[in-house]
Design goal:
The complex is a heterodimer of chains A (952) and B (486).
Chain A lengths: L8 H12 L4 H10 L6 H12 L13 H12 L2 H5 L12 H6 L16 H7 L12 H12 L19 H4 L25 H9 L9 H12 L10 H13 L5 H8 L6 H10 L2 H15 L18 H12 L4 H10 L13 H9 L16 H20 L18 H11 L15 E3 L3 H38 L3 H12 L7 H9 L6 H6 L1 H4 L1 H19 L6 E3 L12 E3 L7 E4 L23 H4 L27 H9 L7 H14 L20 H13 L4 H10 L26 E2 L2 H12 L13 E3 L5 E3 L1 E5 L2 E6 L21 H5 L18 H9 L1 H17 L4 H13 L5 H19 L4 H9 L3 H16 L1 H4 E2 L1
Helix pairs in contact in A: 3-4, 4-8, 12-14, 14-31, 15-16, 17-18, 17-28, 21-26, 22-23, 29-30, 32-35, 35-36, 35-39, 36-37, 36-39, 37-39
Chain B lengths: L8 H5 L4 H13 L34 E6 L6 H4 L4 H5 L17 E5 L6 E4 L4 E4 L3 H5 L4 E8 L5 H10 L9 H9 L9 E4 L25 E3 L18 H20 L4 H24 L6 H6 L5 H18 L4 E5 L11 H25 L6 E6 L3 E2 L2 E3 L14 E2 L3 E6 L7 E3 L1 E2 L6 E3 L2 E2 H11 L8 E4 L2 E4 L15
Parallel strand pairs in B: 1-8, 1-9, 5-14, 5-17, 6-7, 6-8
Antiparallel strand pairs in B: 2-11, 3-4, 5-13, 9-13, 10-12, 15-16, 18-19
Helix pairs in contact in B: 8-9, 11-12
The chains are: A mainly alpha (952), B alpha/beta (486).
Chain lengths: 952, 486
């Protein structure tokens, strides 16, 4: 295997390692045939823009090659007319240096003796070529000119047929497709970046939070810092560190007690103790579970604009994820369960086996994508739901935009449309387009027997109570009827009774006439219906009593309904390529398998298939007819599913996959440093930026796998590092975007963390975990708030408060795709379309308006004031100090306290002047109300401040 | 692309050249080819401060505000703006010669002439199709560009190209650049407003109004597509007036002290500015977004009295009210890519046109009668046009549901006010309306011309991030299209 000579030493290593791997030649050949040439257009565009930065005069002369630098330019501007088209303009093919040299109708395009005379150069330099308005930029021209002057070098011998170069070596050698590189951290003695900075090492070695020196992470980071003339920033102060790590590991701020405890712990283990405490907190799972839920595209609705359907049972998957985080389920297992939990069941599905329930709940991962088939159950919508699921799997697990190859070869990455459908074939049996079940039809009832019995017992009890009340009501109405009959003269009472007891249709004309005369004499059923008219107090009394029945029913445990994958071996579709992505245009069959670009040098054996012999003979089938669904070759002794997903998951986690671990550790890294080591966490392909620290990424990925895929271990490695413990204060402009991590970034709290933090700081948090989501609804103002939207006669009738449930952590608040809690949406809650691998934050005035005026914000500020007041009813300055401490985990300075005290006094005085009558009444009763209100205003200021919103 | 809606400012910020290009920059850097690596790096942190105060452009400006009616999906120039007798004549025949299909699977060479009649309009005689009767009435006020060319295929890259200057994500939108260079007359309203459709976000969502690598202060503010357009404008009763002002003063003191601890963090500055803006918006935004203050005649003019035009009319009217109040840039966006008529163009295109035609024309007329058209640049157009041949959807009844595939080589847009000519048709496509051939305007030229009207130069308007420089128009061959200008 050859590699370019242009690689600098650190890339060369990777190339050499790759070169030593046995590369199956047939695989290479096949790969070369897989995709169309346009797959690399982005690279071309990229190089062009890069070229703008790069006057050729600066270029290192010996390193320019056709393949790496010139071909992308020609590909973008010239291939269309001079290469790809059947009839080449002027007979010239510019796809190879060889064909350029041969030239076209006007002779050779390259003159090596006199490069400026090359036809290629003359036409381009004069802007005669390309035709049309788009010309080569000056820097592109410069590259071309220089390359010609160097004698038009190539990186390697060129193939005979230009069409053979479907993927170039450069594409195949993209960093992310190479095996992980096992390199030790740079040696410490090579790492003296800060010899002039004794303060750093002092802080590191002697500081109160010093741990065992630099970690492997630090060694890699320091290596790059040195290279760029940078140095580590000093360690952040301890209060800052505690706040940072508490948010990072639990999504919550530290309590004042935790601050005090940490600040007074002078032992060298203090930091590690904090880290261990936080990692074992159940709130850790809430925090990091949310992170995975983004990636999985967790949302509690189908995603239909206009009539979005809620997914009331989606939370079971959310709980699975949070529990997996808290129990530190190894990532390989976590992933395998989500992709193939149903294929891991041992024995028949057992509702009483918690492991079975867990495994099936895990497969909710494959049910998270938007799915509109509840409303429009047609082939296109079904196909769309599958395609969205594949997108989620691709970006979450592989870190690739495989969805781009659904209709045509991937435009940027070496992934062909066939590759896409091979990957999709792994999942096809779980998503049979012809035997589709709508979302509501595929819920699985996994209620265990004990619960089922309990539900029945409660129902029986409810029925009993219900019947007993009904009996008494009946008796009561009987008495009313008697009373009305008795109001008639005695001689007709018996006639009346007979008449009313006779079925209406069978009454004689006389009986009817009699009853018409005594209209208040009615059947018992009628009287029950009109009881409110006959006897209103009794009606109200029975109404109250019937509420008992509802109350009893409300104590029923929930039936365990799971959104799970439920594959049937009887309905295994024949997997085919859909021409141009159209499910109505099935083409040739494909076998399930990983993307070939990811199996190079690995055991690439095909995954299990379930296709009948008849299909294997090559007979093609239209996916539009049921004949497209292969008959099963399953026998009773076979497992109930094809096992494809499980086999695939095992391949993904076998320790040799080039992407799975890289993508996982990179995503976790991103959460801490605001930017992944590879900055595009959902796209490791050509459209993504290459990693800033490739060696570190590989080190962490390998170490992650060797350490048993333990996420808590990785978190600990990161937060124990010197890199993590740096201050976030900028010290100069040398690394403005902090690519080299010479400091910690200043990060804004994510939407959920901000809301949760406000709940903690105000003292309102309900920290319970698990269970159904707290409902949200649109209120009269058009805001989406917590609580159920009530309707009366079809009109809005208020929001039913959720009680203490309102103050649960944000991950437990319902998140339908089209109805996001207003607060969370305002602060950049991501849209799940279908998932989100990288969040963003915005800074807009609507956020400020929320913090200034929203009712919920005012209520939280009041609550915080109450909490603070209750702790120090007699000491105004103590209240201020406590409020500040709760919000920011530090003490305010004396002068600040004084300033705030003045503020509160002034505001209180202002409030005393408020002439609102009701308020004046309140003031008369509780004179300190004005000060309390002023304190609430102060609390609101703290909750709204940048110090609260940003984590240094 | 997965998850683009959840947008990605963090990495976007670090990738001024967008997705792939930085990848290439890295590649070149590793090859020792990147000059930037050796560029001088400023040693000390300079205080950076950004604001939205109005700034005088380097040259006299014709336009001070812009309203962009962006039609994502690619309206068919053949059926709306670019009459081709040749196509009518050859309707049903096979197209001879090269054609740039995007969707080869459903491609057909069969020519489909315009399905609606073109007529000369106004004094100028500009031909516009019957699908846009209201636009026809303002033909003398607009410049119709029939020679747009981007060659940036597909919608995402196309939107990026037309709005951010290159067909890759992560770059700052035009509106952000205008704020950066010019600030805004108003300090009481968001200076860059995105008005979205009630049925959903436009394709690429928030990336339509991202500030890319520019400071976050310059990003667009998206306004709710329903009432109330902006939530939380009213303080709770007990905080109204001086009480809230005092709270805000204290908040800003605390924030400024905090900023002093973290110099150079423009997010913190932007947050401080956002509070000031929010405070002022309380006083002015309700009024600005309240169209009930308009006369009945105005409401009717925009079609707000009819269901089909109510939404778009309301958004156009809001746009006018915003510009009147000193907002620099307003973009009105459709949902998804609702102009992308690959199929059923005969029934779908008229629907889209009916929704927007009257409001769009009313906007121009209204601005004109208020004397605002001179200084307000109004733009109508999408990221591409469509092919002269039919696209036959796969599946049942394909031929009955024909549409047109993408065409980025020749398409039309119109522009009014802001120093552009009135009653002028610019450029031409070939006889089939496939390729722009005369007076071709690329997206680079277009953006350069817009900047020119704001008194800015596309060559000089740059932003420095550390050692990197970014600009809206990076293509060196971009030119101001003088012929378009009055």
């Amino acid at each position: 295997m050859s590699h370019t000579t242009a690689q600098p030493p650190h890339l060369m290593d990777a190339g050499q390692i790759a070169a030593t791997l046995p590369l199956v030649s047939s695989a290479r050949k096949r790969l070369a045939q897989l995709a169309a040439l346009r797959a690399a257009t982005l690279l071309a565009a990229a190089l062009m823009t890069g070229a703008l930065l790069c006057p050729a005069s600066e270029a290192a002369e010996t390193e320019l090659t056709f393949e790496r630098h010139v071909r992308p330019i020609l590909k973008a501007h010239c291939f269309h007319c001079h290469g790809e088209a059947d009839e080449r303009q002027g007979g010239l093919d510019v796809r190879l240096v060889r064909t350029l040299t041969t030239g076209g109708d006007s002779g050779t395009a390259i003159d090596r003796a006199n490069s400026e005379d090359s036809l290629l150069w003359r036409r381009v330099a004069a802007d005669e070529m390309p035709e049309g308005p788009k010309k080569l930029s000056d820097s592109e021209k410069a590259i071309l000119q220089k390359w010609l002057a160097l004698g038009a070098p190539t990186a390697r011998p060129e193939p005979e047929d230009p069409n053979e170069v479907r993927f170039t070596e450069e594409e195949l050698e993209h960093w992310a497709f190479q095996p992980l590189r096992d390199a030790p951290p740079p040696r410490p003695d090579e790492l003296t970046p800060n010899s002039d900075a004794p303060r750093d090492s002092d802080a590191l070695l002697a500081g109160p939070t010093a741990i065992a020196g630099q970690t492997a992470i630090d060694a890699f980071i320091a290596d790059r810092l040195t290279e760029h003339g940078l140095r580590f920033s000093p360690e952040a102060d301890r209060a800052t560190l505690l706040r940072r790590v508490t948010y990072d590991l639990t999504g919550l701020p530290p309590t004042p007690e935790e601050v005090t405890e940490f600040l007074s712990d002078a032992t060298p283990q203090a930091w590690e103790r904090v880290v261990d405490r936080l990692l074992s907190s159940p709130q850790y799972g809430v925090r990091w579970g949310r992170n995975w839920l983004d990636v999985a595209g967790y949302a509690e609705s189908d995603g239909i604009v206009g009539k979005d359907r809620v997914r009331p049972h989606a939370w079971r998957y959310r709980d699975y994820v949070i529990h997996a985080m808290n129990s530190d389920k190894p990532y390989d297992q976590f992933l395998t369960e989500q992709l193939a939990g149903d294929e891991m069941l041992e024995g028949p599905r057992d509702v009483n086996n918690p492991r079975h329930v867990e495994l099936l709940a895990a497969t909710g991962f494959l049910r998270m994508a938007p799915d509109t088939t509840e409303v429009e159950n047609n082939l296109n919508e079904r196909n769309q739901a599958v395609a969205e699921t594949i997108k989620v799997v691709g970006s979450a697990v592989l870190g690739l935009t495989v969805g781009c190859a659904q209709c045509h070869d991937h435009r940027y990455d070496p992934v062909s449309i066939e590759d896409y459908y091979r990957l999709r074939a792994v999942f096809d049996p779980a998503f049979p387009l012809q035997h589709w079940r709508r979302p509501s039809e595929r819920l699985i009832d996994l209620t265990d027997d004990a619960t089922r019995q309990e539900i029945q017992r409660i129902e029986d009890e409810a029925v009993k109570v219900d019947e007993e009340i009904k009996q008494r009501r009946h008796d009561h109405c009987q008495a009313i009827q008697d009373r009305e009959i008795n109001a008639a003269p005695e001689e007709i009472r018996q006639e009346l009774r007979t008449a009313i007891d006779t079925e209406e249709a069978k009454r004689s004309p006389e009986q009817k006439a009699l009853l018409d005369k005594w209209p208040k004499v009615r059947t018992i059923g009628w009287i029950i219906g009109q009881l409110v008219e006959y006897d209103q107090p009794a009606f109200r009394k029975f109404e109250e009593e019937f509420k008992q029945v509802e109350a009893i029913r409300a104590t029923k445990p929930l039936a365990r309904m799971i959104m799970a994958v439920d594959e049937s071996r009887d309905r295994v579709p024949q997997s085919v390529v859909f021409f141009r992505g159209d499910p109505a245009s099935p083409k040739h069959p494909v076998e399930p398998g990983e993307l070939p670009i990811l199996t190079r040098g690995r055991d690439a054996s095909l995954l299990p298939r379930t296709v009948s012999d008849q299909l294997q003979t090559g007979e093609t089938h239209s996916a539009e007819t049921s004949s497209g669904e292969a008959q099963s070759d399953a026998t009773p002794s076979q497992p109930p599913t094809t096992g494809r997903r499980l086999a695939y998951a095992r391949q993904l986690t076998d320790g040799t996959h080039p992407l799975v671990a890289r993508v996982a550790v990179n995503r976790i890294w991103q959460q801490y440093f605001g930017r992944g080591l590879a900055p595009n966490t959902g796209d490791f392909g050509f459209a993504g930026q290459p990693p800033s620290h490739p060696e570190l990424l590989d080190y962490l990925a390998l170490d992650f796998m060797r350490g048993g895929w333990k996420m808590k271990r990785l978190h600990k490695q990161i937060v124990m590092s010197r890199t993590y413990r740096q201050t976030s204060r900028r010290d100069g402009d040398a690394d403005p975007e902090n690519i080299w991590l010479s400091r910690m970034p200043l990060r804004r709290l994510e939407a959920e963390a901000l809301r949760d933090a406000m709940l903690v700081v105000s003292g309102a948090l309900n920290g319970s975990i698990d269970g159904p989501s707290v409902p949200v609804g649109e209120d009269g103002e058009g805001k989406t708030v917590i609580g159920k939207r009530l309707l009366r006669d079809g009109l809005y009738a208020g929001i039913e408060p959720a009680g203490e449930q309102e103050f649960r952590r944000s991950v437990y608040i319902s998140t339908p795709r089209t109805l996001a809690l207003d607060m969370l949406e305002t602060f950049d809650l991501p849209a799940m379309t279908p998932n989100c691998t990288q969040r963003s934050t915005s800074t807009v005035a609507t956020q400020a308006l929320w913090l200034m005026n929203d009712k919920q914000m005012i209520a939280l500020s009041d609550r915080m004031a109450e909490t603070v007041w209750a702790s120090s009813p007699a000491d105004a300055s103590a209240r201020i100090r406590l409020a500040w401490m709760r919000a920011f985990a530090v003490q305010p300075s004396a002068s600040e306290v004084e300033r705030f005290q003045q503020f509160i006094e002034q505001q209180a005085e202002r409030f005393r002047q408020d002439s609102n009558a009701e308020w004046q009444k309140t003031l008369a009763e509780t004179p300190e109300a004005a000060e309390r209100r002023a304190l609430a205003g102060f609390c609101q200021v703290l909750l709204s401040s940048n110090r609260m919103l940003y984590i240094p | 692309m997965s998850g683009y809606l959840c947008s990605r400012r963090h990495w976007l910020q670090s990738s001024a050249y967008g997705l792939g290009s930085l990848g290439a920059a890295w590649l070149l850097a590793r090859d020792g080819l990147l000059a930037g690596e050796s560029a001088p790096i400023k040693p000390v942190l300079e205080p950076k401060s950004f604001d939205l105060l109005p700034k005088t452009p380097p040259r006299p400006a014709k336009a001070t505000a812009m309203i962009s009616m962006f039609m994502i999906g690619g309206p068919s120039q053949i059926d709306l703006f670019d009459p081709k007798p040749e196509l009518t004549k050859r309707d049903g025949e096979d197209f001879v010669g090269d054609i740039q299909f995007d969707n080869a699977a459903q491609a057909s060479r069969r020519i489909m002439g315009p399905q609606w009649k073109f007529r000369p309009r106004g004094q100028c005689g500009m031909e516009i199709s019957d699908l846009l009767p209201h636009l026809a009435e303002i033909a003398d006020d607009i410049t119709l560009i029939r020679s747009m060319h981007s060659a940036v295929n597909n919608h995402l890259p196309g939107i990026y190209a037309l709005n951010t200057g290159a067909g890759v994500g992560g770059r700052a939108a035009l509106g952000s650049w205008l704020l950066h260079a010019l600030g805004a007359e108003t300090q009481d309203l968001p200076a860059y407003v995105a008005l979205i459709h009630p049925s959903g976000l436009p394709l690429i969502g928030g990336e339509n109004w991202t500030s890319g690598a520019l400071p976050s202060l310059y990003q667009g503010t998206v306004v709710r597509p329903k009432e109330p357009r902006i939530l939380n404008l009213d303080p709770p009763e007990h905080l109204r007036g001086a009480a809230q002002r005092a709270q805000l003063d204290l908040l800003q003191d605390i924030n400024r002290a905090h900023l002093a601890e973290f110099p150079g963090e423009d997010d913190l500055q932007a947050r401080i500015a956002s509070y000031e803006l929010a405070g002022r918006m309380q006083a002015s935004a309700s009024e600005a977004f309240d169209i009930s203050r308009e006369s009945q005649a105005t409401l009717q003019m925009y079609g707000i009295d009819r269901d089909v035009t109510r939404d778009y009319g309301t958004r156009c009217l809001i746009a006018r009210r915003l510009v009147e109040r000193g907002v620099r840039y307003v973009q009105i966006l459709n949902n998804g890519q609702s102009w992308d008529h690959h199929s059923s163009i005969a029934t779908e295109l008229p629907k889209r046109c009916e929704e927007i035609d009257q409001p769009a024309a009313a906007l121009v007329q209204d601005l004109k009668q208020r004397g605002l058209l001179d200084s307000t640049l109004v733009h109508w157009g999408g990221e591409m046009g469509r092919l002269p041949t039919i696209q036959v959807p796969v599946g049942e009844g394909g031929m009955a549901r024909v549409g047109r595939d993408h065409n980025t080589y020749g398409f039309s847009m119109w522009v009014a006010g802001g120093g552009f000519k009135g009653g002028y048709v610019h450029g031409a496509t070939d006889e089939f309306s496939h390729h722009a051939v005369e007076d071709v305007v690329t997206h680079h030229d277009w953006l350069a011309t817009l900047l020119n009207q704001f008194g800015l130069s596309h060559r000089d308007m740059k932003f420095q991030i550390g050692a990197r420089t970014v600009s809206l128009v990076e293509n060196p061959s971009a030119n101001v299209v003088e012929k378009l200008l009055a």
